[in-house]
Every structure is written in C-alpha cells, then in structure tokens.
Amino acid sequence: MSAFLYSLEHDLTPTLLVLAAIMFGAWTIAYAQIVLACFREKTYGLPLVSIFQNFSWELIFGFQLLAPGVVVLVWGNRLWFLVDCVIVLQVFLYGKQSQTNPWIRDNFHTIALAGLLATGVGVYAFAAYFQDVYGLALSFLINLLMSVLFIAMLFARPDLKGMPYGAAWGKMIGTAAGALFCYIWWPMQFDASGTLVRPPYIKAPPNQYLTYFLYVTIPIVDVIYIYLHKRQQRINASQR
Q1: Would the pTM count as exceeding 0.85?
Q2: Are 44 and 51 in contact (CB under 8 A)?
C-alpha cells in the first residue's frame, strides 16, 4: 500500500490521473465489448498477431520481468493481462473454426501456440535490446500494428463478426488519452542529466521523434478504421 501511495504522490499529477483513468477505462470498455461479442458469436475479435503481442507485453511489464515499474501502472497492466488471458482462451476455443485455409485450420492450435511463444520471446528481446524498460515505445508500436491490422481484419470479415463498433471508439479514445499521458509523463521520468530516476537508471533516448510519430499516427489510423467500420455497417444493412 505504501508503494502504491508513493506512486500516486510522486509520479501522477491530477492531470495524469485523469488521463490514466480515461486510458484504462476506454481500453477496458473496448476489451469488454470485444470479449462479450466473441463469446456470443464464437470467434476472436482482435488480429491474431495483436492478441499474442498484447498478451506478451502485459505479462512482461505487468509482472516486471524486465525492470521495476511504476506501481499504479503495473497494477493496471496486470488487470489488462487477465483480460488478455480470456482473449487468448477465445483464440483456442474458436480460432480453428474461423480459419478459411484448410491447412491452417487443421494445424491451428499448434500454429497459435508456437506464435504465442515466439511472440513472447520477441517482445522481451526487443525491449531488452533497446532498453525500453517500461515498454513505452514497444506498446505504441504494437498499437500501431494493431490499428493497421484491424483495417485488414475488417476487409477479411465484412460481416463484422466479433468486431463491435463501440470497441473501435474505445480503442481510439484510450489510445489518444494514453498518448497525451505519455507525452507528459515520460519526460518526467528522467532527471536533469537524462537518467531514469529509478532503477535501472538507463539514459533517456536521444530524441522523442519515434514516440511523437506514434502518438499522432495511431489515432488517425483508428479514425480511418471507425469510418470504414461504419461504412461497412451501412453496406451490410442495405443487403439485408
């Protein structure tokens, strides 16, 4: 409890607390809508690669396998990890029957397990190699790939099965709030010499060009996805 209160007092200002609440709240609502829709429609509701990446990221940074994290954010990531476990379960329950390629369908569980393990190793190795000890840059790279793959998934599933419209808005709002949060919070984690204020005392990146690009680009791609989703809904309604 004392560590939790220290984190609230020293890491998160009132503005950051509001942004964090919006970020976690919107993403949780998006996750909840996807999970419920997928149990109802017997499918999985995120791109497979994104499911494996999310699971791996939350496992590594929610349980501090790479470096100690900020307590409040760590517990938020642990809650998301529980949801990711449910989403991975849906992959193994319904993923096989969702495949159109016969070979992939016949070998789906082996492919999914191998993909999950390989992704976990890759996510950890990437974060360790680039000293992304809080997974910040990696989380936004994963998020950008997810946004692009959601569009590809929409074209592959014109019936929008397992892809609720509200979840698209939740993802966009959560990502935008998260981008603002990180824009303010991340520079605060380094002292005047550019060293992380807590272990492992790594140096700050030479610049923030990559993160700034991701902060802006992902919400734009999400808005495109929202537009395409609504457009597909109208097409489906006209064909009924």
Answers
A1: yes
A2: yes
Instruction: Tell me the two tokens of residue 128.
Output: 């360790």
DSSP letters, 150-166, are: HHHHHHH-TT-TT--HH
How much is the mean pLDDT over the chain? 93
Q: In this structure, are residues 43 and 94 in contact, taking their beta carbons and an 8 Å threshold?
A: yes
What lies within 8 Å, CB to CB, of 55 at 6+ separation is: 81, 84, 85, 87, 88, 116, 119, 120
Tokens standing for residue 19: 């942004």
Tell me the two tokens of residue 26: 């919107």
- Separation between Cα atoms, residue 33 and residue 41, nearest integer Å: 12
- For the stretch 40-71, pLDDT in tens is 999 999 999 999 999 999 999 999 999 888 88
**Spatial distance between the Cα atoms of 128 and 234, rounded to a whole number of angstroms:** 45
Q: Report pLDDT for 10.
A: 58
Q: Is 33 exposed, middle or buried (0-12, 13-18, 19+ CB in 10 A)?
A: buried
Contact, 20 vs 185, CB < 8 A? no
Give domain limits for the chain.
11-238
What does the pLDDT average to over 202-231? 97
SS3 at position 195: strand
Number of H helices and number of E strands within the chain?
9, 0
